[in-house]
Write a structure and sequence with these properties.
The complex is a heterodimer of chains A (434) and B (931).
Chain A (H helix, E strand, L loop, with lengths): L3 E5 L5 E6 L7 H11 L9 E4 L2 E8 L2 E7 L5 H19 L4 H6 L1 H11 E2 L2 E2 L4 H7 L10 H12 L15 E14 L5 E15 L5 E6 L2 H7 L3 H8 L9 E4 L5 H7 L2 E3 L4 E10 L7 E10 L3 E10 L6 E10 L4 E8 L3 E5 L4 E10 L3 E10 L13 E7 L8 E7 L11 E15 L2
Chain B lengths: L13 H9 L4 H16 L8 H6 L6 H14 L4 H14 L5 H13 L3 H15 L4 H17 L1 H6 L2 H8 L5 H17 L11 H11 L4 H11 L7 H11 L8 H15 L5 H17 L5 H17 L19 H14 L5 H11 L5 H17 L4 H13 L3 H17 L8 H6 L7 H13 L7 H9 L7 H17 L5 H12 L5 H16 L1 H8 L15 H8 L5 H5 L22 H7 L13 H7 L9 H7 L12 H8 L23 H12 L9 E4 L7 E10 L2 E10 L9 E4 L7 E2 L15 E8 L12 E7 L4 E7 L14 H10 L5 E9 L3 H10 L3 E8 L2 E9 L5 E8 L6 E9 L5 H13 L1
Helix pairs in contact in B: 1-2, 2-4, 4-6, 5-6, 5-7, 6-7, 6-8, 7-8, 8-11, 10-11, 11-12, 11-13, 12-13, 13-15, 14-15, 15-16, 17-18, 17-30, 18-20, 19-20, 20-21, 20-22, 21-22, 22-24, 24-26, 25-26, 26-27, 26-28, 26-29, 27-28, 28-29
Classes of the chains: A alpha+beta (434), B alpha+beta (931).
Family (chain B): Belongs to the adaptor complexes large subunit family.
Pfam families (chain B): Adaptin_N (PF01602), Alpha_adaptinC2 (PF02883), B2-adapt-app_C (PF09066)
Protein name (chain B): AP complex subunit beta
Chain lengths: 434, 931
């Protein structure tokens, strides 16, 4: 299991060092610094073996978080755990930075003591941790409170405490999709997938049992029997084919496996209910059509056409197209029909921003790029044109059908719960080669 | 709150200052001081001098302060064991605290203090805590047992903690169960005997599966990992466990998913229900693909594992090629892994897409990635024949870019393409030659030289090109030198007229000016071959090369199976067994359960069944040592012990064996049956005596000179072959004609027509003093590798001594190969005689033989030639005889003996399916009849 955990700043100075196992010595701290942080080459692997000691690292901003072990540990678990620690620290004190880590080192040590025992990860749920790792100094807890904490840390429903009460029972569902695309210059879709998640904010009293329904093809077909399904789909109730989905630990996985129903007791507040991935029938909100012409060795002409491909009544927002330019660009002339375009030398790219754009529209940008003559033989390889956007629908066609709330002990019914559903489609890696 | 200030302390008198602060009465000041101490400890300063003062702060009701003090204790207790005792009292007291958090904290910390005296005091509190009413304390105590086991295993066993831990597996709280499982797994793994201390059984497994649904994500990982060590007792159990684990594939934590995959992959081996397995395989793909949208570090682990899974079960992801396409912003380690998997998944169906992607990658910036992409194009060509042409075109395009490392990489793979598809793409050679000057990497240079040598007859100026390399011969990498030597010899064999000078030049460079033994040896082999038998040289050097395999870099199957049991772990990331990187305790090697693999194959029968044992490309190249060695030398060593290559390798295995300095049992010389121990010195003679006594007159041709002293660096060998008691012997006389004694003898045969190999190591009494002939009899087996020789009974021998490795060839008299069971039934004989077509009948006559038919019958019988029938036709005796060679080839003969018994001419007609043997059999008849 994990033998020790270190946090370094970008210079390689140790900010936090916690050793869990006897086989890890102080020299391990230095070995990582010398061989990885101070190494000359770029990092070639997140796992490094130095003298039979394995180092796992995750670098976020300027901070290195490293776990070290001498055993054959579960590598996936170590990385998931490192990411979880980062999450956890963020939720305690915000951004991970050298200053924040130093300012909170006592807290971090306390956390590390709690969530890792002899190198075995324990409960890492921040909501639960916050109930008893508080940095509030002496806090006399009653016996009941203590018992409640311990049963929550270890319990079956570790993510929710009893006795929550709201005057107004309310829940919010955000269907957030990241649309990923790789398109060839000729407009052929090389790969496209949607990574979606359903984020839920629940403000519900008691221990409510929730049942969540979506327009998943599998679910719809098991529900409706025989020909009715066909009618339904034909009657304009589109289904989404989900390749794979994952659930928050509150969802009863065995029930999903057998009955295809998503049922759970939600944590209080915000959490990620499910993640899913689809690859079929994605409606791509935007299409980029590039046209690049190299005129001699010192000039280049780029024309980019942007088409929006959704209902005219909807509005796309925060649209940004990034067109890479060669490293030896000396000047750029730009004309665009809509929005603002700028050449950013620091990014080696033309950034074209459009605040809003309705569906089924088309606009275009043309640029003349002047190049410095260089003697480097190496051809410039054009990185793809990438784009960002936000649209108010789910590109995969994902739909929430219902979310029912049952709380048998308290007497509020499903109808009294106020429910909000919102769909947001964002760009993931949305690239067109040119 | 600005705790950062603790990191910046004044240097002078720091410790002293801290000391006074720690002893301050004010609580607040104390706390500040402890924080400062911890900060100093973190950055690596030695603050152990403050031990007593810090421990004094332990008695506090402030939990935060307590934890800090504990942290300090864990760090320094080992260096101050006596003082650590001071803390024991507080620990014991804390273990009784009404607050479960404090009880757990005390037990947790005590387990981390590796001081014997503290350990003694730990036992009682631990026993209590394992039965604590609060689950939080119990789950902490469970881990503490593992800690204690690490410090003192005997104590844990004696105190009965193992039983208590086992009881916790049935605890009502899922997290207690999970931690107990984790602790037990660790204890089992580190058990010194390698035998698990606590065996899992079906009821326990059932409890674990129940807890699995309820515990935290990490707990699920512990449980799944421990399930992967369990071997279900039958298929039904395996199947039901699989069913209960499958829902885990939808978990958001990648570790849970991968651990579940591990269990499923392992148990699937046990399940013969193909329907069930194929359903399971279908369920595996989506979660694996989803892992690719996690953080890059997790992706990396996932990709390394997918690489294994794809090798084990290619079907799972065969339709998922697209998800492995490289994204522009992927970290380099993810890119390289994706590329690897893309090549593995490449097939005829998706090759077009893959190629266009690879072409795209070949223009990226990262040198390693680009190289790998170029190499991948070549591998696609080799893997999917239909795409070869497109791949070659793409590679040519890339060569035109003139980017140095791209060109070099392309040439390396084109060489492989040439090998796979000979006589197809040679038209591009001229383009390759244009880039000759830019090649500066050994592998690329060697590849180019190989190409020139292999196609010397089509390259007009091959001699000039090779000569240009020769100028800097001494400075070249040995890989290039070897290749150059071979290429020039090939050129000479193809165009002997105008390249004699060149070949002499390279041979002298290799044998005289080089101090690389490999190069010298190869030079000598060529030299001798060329000077003794150019025809044989041609056979050897220009021999047909074995096919190179389609898949490369496949893991060896047993290693792959082991790694499958380690999915998700570090071993699967490194692609190495744990023993390669974990110190000390070796543990048990994990193996997949005995599988129902036959059924599996049927199921996967869609053409791409499991890859059979496919040797890596490298080891195949080694196979034909003489003409190809474009591979780093370390591979040579690695594959040397595996002595059974296919393909022509003149003395390939033999050389390796010989080079094992006199190792008595060289790997390619399995020990023969210890029939007649051939004693050194007298062995030959004794053997002869025994031989004579049992079958008095087996014909043995006289010894001939095989290796003259001039050629043998002073060693003269003469010899013959004989057959005694059904065993073939090589009877040799070694004579040392040099001034110095010789030692370190070993012998090796090249592959030959009858699969002859030495039955035991050569035993020459050493030292062999000058001018003292020594007779040696070497029993031989016929179980070695077979390769047809010309003439059929040719045997190439290498003898090694302390001076050098010496080579000679000799002819085996066929009669030693006549087996004892060569008597054919009369009817069978008749039928066989009829069945063999007449063109397979060869006529010979033997002149000046003095024998009558009875004598002939007897003589032949002694040599295992059996007379089936005898006729008298017109005064002539007709004998019909049969014999069987050791390789089960039957030979039938008709012998016509004229009535006059002196100096007559015997005519012989020989019939056999394998007509090639006739010549040798005739020679044997002649020898026997004349004796």
């Amino acid at each position: 299991m994990i033998g020790g955990l270190f946090i370094y700043n970008h210079k390689g100075e140790v900010l936090i060092s916690r050793v869990y196992r006897d086989d890890i010595g102080r020299n391990a701290v230095d070995a990582f610094r010398v061989n990885v942080i101070h190494a000359r080459q770029q990092v070639r692997s997140p796992v490094t073996n130095i003298a039979r000691t394995s180092f796992f690292h995750v670098k976020r901003a300027n901070i290195w978080v490293a776990a070290v072990t001498k055993q054959n540990v579960n590598a996936a678990m170590v990385f998931e755990f490192l990411l979880k620690i980062i999450d956890c620290m963020q939720s305690y004190f915000g951004k991970i930075s050298e200053e924040n880590v130093k300012n909170n080192f006592v807290l971090i040590y306390e956390l590390l003591d709690e969530i890792l025992d002899f190198g075995y990860p324990q409960n890492t749920d921040t909501g639960v941790l916050k109930t008893f790792i508080t940095q509030q100094g002496v806090k006399s807890q009653t016996k009941e409170e203590q018992a409640q904490i311990t049963s929550q840390v270890t319990g079956q429903i570790g993510w929710r405490r009893e006795g929550i009460k709201y005057r107004r029972n309310e829940l919010f569902l955000d269907v957030l999709e990241f649309c990923n695309l790789l398109m060839s210059p000729q407009g052929q879709v090389l790969s496209a997938h949607v990574a979606g998640k359903v984020v839920m904010k629940s403000y519900l009293s008691g221990m409510p049992e929730c049942k969540f329904g979506i327009n998943d093809k599998l679910v719809m077909e098991t529900k409706g029997k025989g020909p009715t399904t066909e009618d339904q789909t034909r009657a304009g109730k589109p289904v989404v084919v989900i390749d794979d989905c994952q659930f928050h630990q509150c969802v009863k996985l065995s029930k999903f496996e057998t009955e295809h129903s998503i049922s759970f007791i939600p944590p209080d507040g915000e959490f990620e209910l499910m993640k899913y991935r689809t690859t079929k029938d994605i409606s791509l909100p935007f299409r980029v059509i590039p046209l690049v012409r190299e005129v001699g060795r010192t000039r280049m002409e780029v024309k980019v056409v942007l088409k929006s491909n959704f209902k005219p009544s909807l509005l796309g927002q925060k649209i940004e197209v990034k067109i890479p330019t060669p490293l030896n660009t000396s000047g750029v002339q730009l004309i665009c029909m809509k929005g603002k375009a700028k050449y950013k030398a620091s990014e080696n790219a033309i950034v074209w921003k459009i605040k809003r754009m309705a569906g089924m529209k088309e606009t275009q940008l043309s640029a003349e790029i002047e190049l410095l003559e260089t003697d480097t033989k190496k051809k410039w390889t054009r990185p793809p044109i990438s784009m960002n956007f936000e649209v108010p629908f789910a590109p995969s066609g994902f739909k929430v059908r219902y979310l029912k709330v049952f709380e048998p002990k308290l007497n509020y019914s499903d109808h009294e719960v106020i429910k909000w559903v919102r769909y947001i489609g964002r760009s993931g890696l949305y690239e067109t080669r040119c | 709150m600005t705790d950062a200030k603790y990191f910046t302390t004044t240097k002078k008198g720091e410790i002293f200052e801290l000391k006074s602060e720690l002893n301050s009465d004010k609580k607040e000041k104390k706390r500040e001081a402890v924080k400062k101490v911890i900060a100093s400890m973190t950055v690596g300063k030695d603050v152990s001098a403050l031990f007593p003062d810090v421990v004094n702060c332990m008695q506090t009701d402030n939990l935060e302060l307590k934890k800090l003090v504990y942290l300090y204790l864990m760090n320094y207790a080992k260096s101050q064991p006596d003082m650590a005792i001071m803390a024991v009292n507080t620990f014991v007291k804390d273990c009784e605290d009404p607050n479960p958090l404090i009880r757990a904290l005390a037990v947790r910390t005590m387990g981390c203090i590796r001081v014997d005296k503290i350990t003694e005091y730990l036992c009682e509190p631990l026993r209590k805590c394992l039965k604590d009413e609060d689950p939080y304390v119990r789950k902490t105590a469970a881990v503490c047992v593992a800690k204690l086991y690490d410090i003192n295993a005997q104590l844990v066993e004696d105190q009965g903690f193992l039983e208590q831990l086992k009881e916790l597996l049935s605890d009502s709280n899922p997290m207690v169960v999970a931690n107990a499982v984790a602790a037990l797994s660790e204890i089992n793994e580190s058990s010194p005997s390698g035998v698990p201390l606590v065996e899992m059984n079906a009821p326990t497994i059932n409890k674990l599966l129940t807890a699995l649904n309820e515990c935290t994500e990490w707990g699920q990982v512990f449980i799944l990992d421990s399930l992967s060590n369990y071997n279900p007792k039958d298929e039904r159990e395996a199947q039901s466990i699989c069913e209960r684990i499958t829902p885990r594939l939808a978990h958001a934590n990648a570790a849970v998913v991968l651990s579940a995959v591990k269990v499923l992959m392992k148990y699937m081996e046990m399940i013969s229900d193909t329907e069930f397995v194929s359903v399971l395989t279908r369920k595996l793909a989506p979660p694996l693909v989803t892992l690719l949208s996690s953080e890059p570090e997790v992706q990396y682990v996932a990709l390394r594992n997918i690489n294994l899974i794809v090798q084990k079960r290619p079907d799972i992801l065969k339709h998922e090629m697209k998800v492995f396409f490289v994204k522009y912003n992927d970290p380099i380690y993810v890119k390289l892994e994706k590329l690897d998997i893309m090549i593995r998944l490449a097939s005829q169906a998706n090759i077009a897409q893959v190629l266009s992607e690879l072409k795209e990658y070949a223009t990226e910036v990262d040198v390693d990635f680009v190289r790998k992409a170029v190499r991948a194009i070549g591998r696609c060509a080799i893997k999917v024949e239909q795409s070869a042409e497109r791949c070659v075109a793409t590679l040519l395009d890339l060569i035109q870019t003139k980017v140095n490392y791209v060109v070099q990489e392309a040439i390396v793979v084109i060489k492989d393409i040439f090998r796979k598809y000979p006589n197809k793409y040679e038209s591009i050679i001229s383009t390759l030659c244009e880039n000759l000057d830019t090649l500066d990497e050994p592998e690329a240079r060697a590849s180019m030289i190989w190409i020139i040598g292999e196609y010397a007859e089509r390259i007009d100026n091959a001699d000039e090109l090779l000569e240009s390399f020769l100028e800097g011969f001494a400075d070249e990498n040995s890989q290039v030198q070897l290749q150059l030597l071979t290429a020039i010899v090939k050129l000479f064999l193809k165009r002997p007229a105008d390249t004699q000078e060149l070949v002499q030049q390279v041979l002298s460079l290799a044998t005289q000016d080089s101090d690389n033994p490999d190069l010298r040896d190869r030079g000598y082999i060529y030299w001798r071959l060329l000077s003794t038998d150019p025809a044989a040289a041609k056979e050897v050097v220009l021999a047909e090369k074995p096919l190179i395999s389609e898949e490369t870099d496949l893991l060896e199957p047993t290693l792959l199976d082991e790694l499958i049991c380690h999915i998700a772990s570090l071993a699967s990331v490194y692609h190495k067994p744990p023993s390669a990187f974990v110190e000390g305790r070796s543990g048990l090697r994990k193996i997949l359960p005995a599988s129902t693999r036959l059924d599996m194959k049927k199921m996967e029968g869609s053409g791409d069944a499991q890859p059979a044992v496919i040797p890596s490309q490298d080891s195949l190249i080694i196979g034909d040592l003489l003409s190809m060695d474009i591979n780093p030398p370390q591979v040579m060593q690695q594959s040397a012990p595996a002595a059974s290559y296919s393909g022509p390798d003149l003395l390939g295995g033999g050389l390796d064996a010989l080079l094992d300095v006199g190792a008595p049992s060289a790997p390619s010389a399995p020990l023969g049956p210890p029939s007649i121990p051939s004693n050194p010195a007298t062995g030959g003679l004794l053997g002869d005596i025994f031989g004579l006594s049992s079958s008095p007159s087996t014909y043995t041709s006289p010894k001939t000179l095989w290796l003259p002293a001039v050629k043998g660096k002073g060693l003269e060998i003469s010899g013959t072959f004989s057959r005694r008691n059904g065993q073939i012997y090589m009877d040799m006389t070694f004579t040392n004609k040099a001034m110095q004694p010789m030692s370190g003898f070993a012998i090796q045969f090249n592959k030959n027509s009858f699969g002859l190999i030495p039955g035991q190591p050569l035993q020459v009494p050493t030292p062999l003093t000058p001018n003292q002939p020594c007779d040696v009899s070497l029993p031989m087996n016929t179980t070695g590798p077979v390769q047809k020789m010309e003439p059929l009974n040719n045997l190439q021998v290498a003898v090694k001594n302390n001076v050098d490795v010496l080579y000679f060839a000799c002819l085996i008299p066929m009669n030693v190969l006549f087996a004892e069971d060569g008597q054919m039934d009369k009817r069978v004989f008749l039928q066989t005689w009829k069945d063999i077509p007449t063109q397979n009948e060869v006529q010979y006559s033997i002149n000046n033989v003095s024998a009558n038919s009875d004598a002939v019958v007897q003589k032949m019988q002694q040599n295992n030639v059996f007379t089936i029938a005898k006729r008298n036709v017109e005064g002539q005796d007709m004998l019909y005889q049969s014999l069987k060679l050791t390789n089960n080839v039957w030979v039938l003969a008709e012998v016509k003996i004229p009535p006059s018994s002196n100096n007559c001419t015997v005519s012989l007609s020989i019939k056999s399916i394998a007509v090639d043997v006739a010549g040798g059999v005739y020679a044997a008849y002649e020898g026997i009849l004349r004796s």
